[in-house]
Amino acid sequence: MPPTRGSQGTTENTPLVEGPKDLEGRQCTDVACFGIFVIFWIVLATLFAVVFTTGDVHKIIHGVDYEGNVCGYAGSNVSGSGANLNNKPKIWYPRIAADVSEQPDAFATGAWWNIDLYGVCVERCPTFDINTIEEVPDYGWGHFHGSKAPKWPVYMDTNDIVNRCIPRKEVSATTVVLCTMPTCGDVPGATCSPLSGTMGVPAGAWEMNDVHLASTCGRQIDFTYAATVEQPGSNDYIDWMFASMTNVDHVLEGLAKNWAVLLVCGVVFAVLINFAWLLVFYCFAKVAVWLAIWLILLSFALGATFSFIKGGLGEAIAVAELSNATGSDFPPDLVQMGSAVLAPVDEEYKEHMISAGVLFSILFLIAAILVCCGRQAIDRCVVLIEQASLALGSTPGLAIMPAIVSMLQLGVVLLCAFTLTVVPTMTMEGTLEGRLHETTGDKALEDWGLWSIALYIGFGAIWTYCFLTALTLMTVAACVFYFYFVNKATVPAKAYMAQYDDNQTSWPVLKHLKWVLRYHIGTIAFGSAVLAIVMFIQLLTKALFAYLEKNLQANSCLKVASCCVLCCLQCFKKTIEFINAYAYIYCFVENVGFCQGCASTFALILRYPTQIAINTAVQRVLSALLTLTTPLACGTIAYAYFDFMASDADTHTGNGALLLPFSVFVLALLMTFAFAGVWEQVVNSLTVCVIHDVESFDGKFLRESMKTAFDNPKKPKATVMDNKA
Asked: Do 270 and 123 have their domain in common?
């Protein structure tokens, strides 16, 4: 009797499965975890409702004045002064210096939610005019005892940043071209400059102009002086806060004006360049793999050499080489720079550098042994890189999906971040004076409640972010499963199984996203929860050490403990991410739960440690090559456009000249990170599929280029019993 749809053939003793399980015959995995995730989000949505109902979004958007009124909000009149604030949607801070001096503790901690500035609602942000000083009336004067003055003169220009009138820091520079020889007394008609004989300017200097040309001057100096207008009585924290808000406003303004060019350069060009790299990896897979391996060996060797020289072991050799270079054609500046770089460190740090050199040497030896003993693993890696590039190239939707998921992740993060900014307004009531003199006990109780809500929302953001990442990883694994086992166009004709006729699709990403959501959404919730808990603990630990270092005296033991604990947590997090990535593959390929997927991952690592190590190392190097070259290329194209080809190219100069190219660089970097992550998951998924094929189906689905590399001589050839009855 021949095998039925999704069934397995048999031998006399050992069953032989003809192929992977039919997609329609799957079962849901880790259903309870999905239920927990749903309950968690119900509670999270309830907290959102509580925060936005109890808090006041208007206080975040428009600000609260010193009377406790919300600017631009007609229903707000806390002090009873009767001021009509409906047409005053912006808030201005006229006495920042006094506020800083009155709240030193709040400014010292950097807790912005505990800082209260004396604000006055205004119709527009005031501007400074040296000829006519503008005065803003204080509507609470004579009506409210907390008012400080009847009018507030405007001595600084302000920027409108999210309806906050922030003092503008202005820097102006002036250059005067002076001639010092001959002196003004020796040039007929030349007038001595007022700067002559002051501030380092030689006596007798005169300013060159149209009348007295440079041709009459023998020695010229350019005298530049600058003037900075800034908020008096401020401190470093508030200067940083205002400067950050101003920079963000400028960035958003530039992005809004040039969004189309940014998308073309940062997204379209990034995708095209990444696919060009994909073509290179496919055509020159062997060269790419060996280049990555030699770069790893070279990095370890150079790291060991540099560490030993800095530790003083190779000082004599380095000095001799630099001495030879000094007498050669090398530029002296370059030789001097080399001497400074290779100079040994202080005596107390030499042991650390020698230890680093020993570590690099051990890593070099391990890598060299792996290369020498793992030639077959390297050959397999070459085939996997080639076929993975083909799989990703034949499923272009995989390159677009991370961008869509990243937008969803950004939306979740922004929603949670905005909600967190609204949380402090839940208890922000009363006037400025009342808030400053609030009792400690009540405030502590309120703070604990707010912190609990904030921590829950923060964990919700992290878990949802990890959930969407896991969804991407498993969908990639599902698409590779389709490429290797199911797709009639890519599976060898002799290996294709008729049970997959109804699974053929022109939209593999959408099709398998549906399969993942239908059968494995609980597994995704489980795996993402594990990673989210680790990340949450990592963030809390980092915040705890930052608090201790800020509020305790300098303690070297505390710094050492902080570095060790945070390093261990980071390593643990990376390990969890690595295990999860493979576990999601097994969960789809074998239709198992998360725990079984992790067990299969550990078994894979134990059976094929060399293969996994080489694959991972090569992936990291090639991904680094992607993330270095693609954003630089896109940023260079954007710089050439904005500074030379754009209609307003003349305006892209000065300090802001690199703003838009840098924005393109960041956008392309994010796109390339996502692309590289998908490509790495494709390689991992293909590795699991091939090994699963070799071990379970005797290599039935191997492509011709894979058969030599993935032979399986240790596995006895099983045959399907020929039933002739």
From this structure: no
Q: HSE on the CB side for 110, CA within 13 Å?
A: 9
Paired tokens of 231: 């908020």
| The pLDDT value given to residue 699 | 86
Torsion angle, alpha carbons of 539, 541, 543, 548, to 10: -170
CB 135 within 8 A of CB 148: no
Residue 311, SS3 per DSSP: coil
DSSP 531-553: HHHHHHHHHHHHHHHHHHHHHS-
DSSP run (H or E) holding 523: helix 521-551
Cα within 13 Å of Cα(316), Cβ side: 1
Indicate the number of domains in the chain: 3
- In this structure, are 77 and 195 located in the same domain? no
Q: Report the distance separating Cα 241 and Cα 66, nearest Å.
A: 20
pLDDT digits (tens, 9 = 90+) for 328-376: 555 666 556 656 666 777 777 778 888 888 999 999 999 898 888 888 8
Round to whole Å and give the CA distance between 503 and 282: 27
pLDDT in tens, 633-673: 998 988 888 776 665 555 554 445 577 788 889 889 988 98
Specify whether 503 is located in the same domain as 601: yes
CA distances from 481 to 4, 474, 543, 611 (A): 21, 10, 42, 20
Q: Please report whether residue 589 resides in a domain.
A: yes
Q: Which residues pair with 458 in a beta bridge?
A: none
Gap between the Cα atoms of 212 and 205, Å rounded: 13
3-state secondary structure of 74: coil
Domain residues for the domain of 216 are 170-229
User: Which residue is it, tokens 């003169």?
Assistant: 153
Q: Tokens for 376, please give them.
A: 């077959």
**pLDDT for 2 beyond 50:** no
**One domain for residues 509 and 576:** yes
Do 683 and 388 contact (CB within 8 A), yes or no? Answer: yes
* Cβ neighbours of residue 570 closer than 8 Å, sequence gap 6 or more: 538
Sign of CA dihedral 192, 195, 197, 202: negative
CA–CA gap between residue 504 and residue 500 (Å, rounded): 7
Residues 281, 415 within the same domain: yes
Which of 524, 612, 530, 510 shows the shortest CA–CA distance to 577? 530
Sequence-ordered list of residues with C-beta below 8 angstroms from that of 411, at least 6 positions apart, any chain = none
| The two structure tokens encoding residue 594 | 């998360």
Q: Would residue 312 be called left, alpha or beta, if left means φ above 0 and alpha means ψ between -120 and 50 degrees?
A: left
18 contacts: CB under 8 Å, gap ≥ 6: 3, 7, 8, 9, 497, 697, 700, 720
- DSSP annotation of 502 reads G
DSSP letter string, 191-234: -B-TTTTSTTPPTT-EE--SSS-GGG-SEEEEEEEEEEE--TT-
| Contact status, residue 675 vs residue 271, Cβ threshold 8 Å | yes
Residue 80 and residue 177 in one domain: no
The pLDDT, as a whole number, for residue 197 is 85
User: Which pairs count as long-range contacts for 143-150, CB under 8 Å and 24+ apart, including other chains?
Assistant: 143/79, 143/80, 143/81, 143/82, 143/83, 144/67, 144/79, 144/80, 144/81, 144/431, 146/66, 146/67, 146/79, 146/431, 146/432, 146/433, 147/66, 148/66, 148/95, 148/98, 148/118, 149/94
Q: Is the dihedral of CA 181, 184, 186, 189 positive or negative?
A: positive
